[in-house]
Amino acid sequence: MKNTLDPLEPKADKATVRRHNLSLVLRAVHDEGEATRAAVAARVGLTRAAVSSLVEQLLGGGFLTESGKTFSGQAGRPGTALRVARTGPAGLGVEINIDYVSVCVVDLAGTDRVRLTEHLDNRDVPPGEVLARAARIAARTLESAAEQELRPAGVRLALPGLVSGGTVRQAPNLGWNRVAAEELFGRALGAVRPGPGDLPVGSDNEANAAALAELWFGEGDGARARSFLYLSGEIGVGGAIVVDGELLRGAHGFAGEIGHVVADAEGPECRCGSRGCLEQYAGQAALLRGAGVDEQGGLPGVAELERRAAAGDARAVAALERAGRMLGLVLSGAVNLLDPDAVVLGGIYRPLMPWLGAAVDRELALRVVSGLWVAGGGRLRASSSSGDAARGAAALVVRDVIADPAGYAERVGTP
Amino acid sequence: MKNTLDPLEPKADKATVRRHNLSLVLRAVHDEGEATRAAVAARVGLTRAAVSSLVEQLLGGGFLTESGKTFSGQAGRPGTALRVARTGPAGLGVEINIDYVSVCVVDLAGTDRVRLTEHLDNRDVPPGEVLARAARIAARTLESAAEQELRPAGVRLALPGLVSGGTVRQAPNLGWNRVAAEELFGRALGAVRPGPGDLPVGSDNEANAAALAELWFGEGDGARARSFLYLSGEIGVGGAIVVDGELLRGAHGFAGEIGHVVADAEGPECRCGSRGCLEQYAGQAALLRGAGVDEQGGLPGVAELERRAAAGDARAVAALERAGRMLGLVLSGAVNLLDPDAVVLGGIYRPLMPWLGAAVDRELALRVVSGLWVAGGGRLRASSSSGDAARGAAALVVRDVIADPAGYAERVGTP
Predict the structure, then answer these.
(1) Can you list the positions of beta strands (E) in B310-362?
(2) Fold for domain A221-382?
(3) Is B169–A402 a contact, with Cβ atoms under 8 angstroms apart?
(4) Which of B370, B398, B400 to mutate to test the interface with A (most CBs of A within 10 A)?
(5) Fewest CB within 10 A of the end CB: N or C in chain B?
(6) Nearest neighbour of B7 by CB, restricted to A24, A332, A367
(7) Do A7 and B46 touch (CB under 8 A)?
(8) Quick check: B162 and A7 CB within 8 A?
(9) How many Å apart are CA A2 and CA A208, to the nearest integer?
(10) Which ipTM score applies to this complex?
(11) In angstroms, what CA-CA distances link B32 with B49, B108, B346?
(12) Cα separation of B288 and B70, whole Å?
């Protein structure tokens, strides 16, 4: 039955408790942005003395810094303000998409500190070569990070396909099938990276990583939704489902594949083997083709489409309206199934929202059975500009550091 | 960020800990079916003495019974076998559907002990009257329960619509709109029920309740899936999503509405205001109409359809095949979004599976992008016969008793 009632935790040994509490304190400062020891103690429910001892260890390990004096709001006694360090522990995120690779390093606060993006065509290139190229880009990014004294705890790949257990099971738009991405990337990075030791490599779906970036770093009206559908418009259409601030990953890790939800049972064949998938109507190629822009045009093509739509080009506007209807159609089903707070459109949909949005919203208002979707009600929005898949992936690495700072210190050492 | 790290629980007062531990022990016996005090102590991590004291209280309160002597497997010392009581604490579940009302009382083990079902047409009857009728049926059921010495802690309604905060926001097939179902039912039950005091009334969507019954009581191959989509074929098509053994309820409690996911954008108008909803192709009326059976025929109509299909009637078989294709089409989208372990078809789909199943499975195998859906792979199945919405609703009441037996003793008293 549902209501899990766990026994009170058996008494943990002292070292385990301290390790746990180190993380609690680091996380408290991370979440607050800036906090005194007293504020941390109040938040985590430990004594001031215990917090002070933990803070000393975190300062020594380079996880926290203290800056100047501040006045605690409650007691009026001056306290030193703690912040997470801007150097040291960091995360490396590598988004490999169809027509670009974007690598970034974030610090403990999740701030994007180094970014290197290359636009290139990864289709019809052997997976090993794509991953080796990405590793070279990552190595250059790591050089910049080292100059900023940032030392990533690991790498997380963000990949446009079905990712599970370190392997891309399928990425139709890349033409990948059972590619051991983590292993290939890790080997390639080991060969080109300066410095000793291997960085642990993880991997995730790119829309998942982008959705987490939206959850953690999204700004602006309504960015605080805790349950939302995220769509990433690229050459393919990726998707992710966030429920109560957590990714819904599915039984095999393959949830969120909205690009392959059927929009029209009798529609054109899709690279996935099915017919009439949403991608066939709202993917980048379909959008460009519908607007009469060269469908191989990549991001410059999208910019051209945006220019034409802004200039009132009837064909461009009609193509975007059509794609918006199909997006709305499929999204209405997803909203009926999942009842999220919001729908967030990212990737190429972000700049195209002025011409897509109304049609999407209209379909949703017509077809969401709860009647809770009102066109113009603000529940449909473009993704924030402050997060993307590479940043989300890098932040996942940092999240692991925050969950176990002692583990990072053991592996990577202290400054 | 994701990894929530809670501080170690502050020291709870003794009474709260005892209350919590009472539930732990009751739940341990409930989950095991039969257990010695020693086995309970091992499972919950409390001392044998503490468990014995808690067991005494639970025996006194009528939550547990002990039966004969048994031998514990490990020590060889005889121990008394504990079981949850077959009398006393119970739950009342009331499913109000379009063309029937089914009421059941389950005991602490979740066993269906009393069942009263009336087939009748609830359409075009004022909601207050439908609920009053259901209350009379419930009162009769309670009389039978009392004769069996079962004393329900409360009632849970299972309703075919969008249910939130005690109100049916919308039930298109009943024609209900913002009906204060809990209040109306509670008042009606208070007027007709024998005995003192009001039973607390709760409410839920019927597919949600049926999915929980499937989760908790499902039997047979594959019934142990912890993540599945549940479809309830009735006059409408209800749906529920179970993820890791929990209902996914959505931001407003309206998740799972698969009956109103679009199957064909240009399809016939639906009572919900949209077009081409799955219900228009796979609801009971569409199925019967397609097969040339009187679409107002209700359950006898479904039995007639089943007879015709079994006899090889071409029109009946074709209608079921068509409905199966549309079910599979919409389900493929839901599987791409949610990546569940299994899809479970309940309600009228259960007897019709021999003629629906292959088409559903085929569409899924064609359209699920992970390639993990193999036709005939066993991930599509009919619901178990051992659970339904009324039982699921009643079990939800019992679950609350198990979560706080002391609360039940305070409210309802001891035997």
Answers:
(1) 342-347
(2) Nucleotidyltransferase; domain 5 (3.30.420)
(3) no
(4) B370
(5) C
(6) A24
(7) yes
(8) no
(9) 27
(10) 0.86
(11) 20, 13, 28
(12) 55
Q: Give the three-state DSSP class for B232.
A: strand
Cα first-last separation, chain B: 49
B339 in contact with chain A, both atoms CB, cutoff 8 A: yes
Q: Give B91's contacts in chain A (Cβ within 8 Å).
A: none
B243 touches chain A (CB under 8 A): yes
What's the rounded Cα separation, in Å, for the pair B65 and B50? 18
Q: Do B339 and A44 touch (CB under 8 A)?
A: no
Closest partner residue to B27 (CB to CB) among A5, A337, A338 is: A5
Q: Best interface-test mutation with B: which of A4, A5, A14 has the largest number of B CBs within 10 A?
A: A5
CB contact under 8 A, A216 and B10: no
Q: Where in chain A is the domain with CATH 3.30.420.40?
A: 88-208+389-412, 221-382
Closest CA to B166 of B204, B199, B209, B197: B204
- Contact criterion met (CB < 8 Å) for B369 and A338: no
For residue B277, what is the nearest residue in chain A, using CA coordinates? Answer: A367
Scan for tokens 């602490």, then name that residue.
B108
Give the residue on A whose Cα is nearest the Cα of B4: A403
Q: How many C-beta atoms lie closer than 10 Å to residue A97's C-beta? A: 24
Token readout for A178 is: 């059972």
| Gap from A336 CA to chain B (nearest CA, Å) | 5
Question: Where along chain B do the CATH 1.10.10.10 domains lie?
Answer: 14-84
CATH 3.30.420.40 placement within chain B: 88-208+389-407, 221-382
Neighbours of B77 (CB within 10 A): 9
**Tokens describing residue A72:** 């605690």
CATH match of B14-84 with 1.10.10.10? yes
B207 to B213, B242, B261: CA distances (angstroms): 10, 11, 15
Contacts of B209 in chain A (CB under 8 A): none
| Nearest CA-CA distance, residue A307 and chain B, Å | 30
Amino acid at A206: E
Full pLDDT tens readout for chain A, 415 residues: 333 334 444 456 788 889 999 999 999 999 999 999 999 999 999 999 999 999 999 999 999 999 876 655 555 456 789 999 999 999 999 999 998 999 999 999 999 999 999 988 998 899 999 999 999 999 999 999 999 999 999 999 999 999 999 999 999 889 999 999 999 999 999 999 866 678 999 999 999 999 999 999 987 655 578 999 999 998 889 999 999 999 999 999 999 999 999 999 999 999 889 999 999 999 999 999 999 998 887 778 999 999 999 999 999 999 999 999 999 999 999 999 999 999 999 999 999 999 999 999 999 999 999 988 998 888 999 999 888 999 999 999 999 999 999 999 988 876 6
Q: Which CATH number describes the domain made up of A88-208+389-412?
A: 3.30.420.40
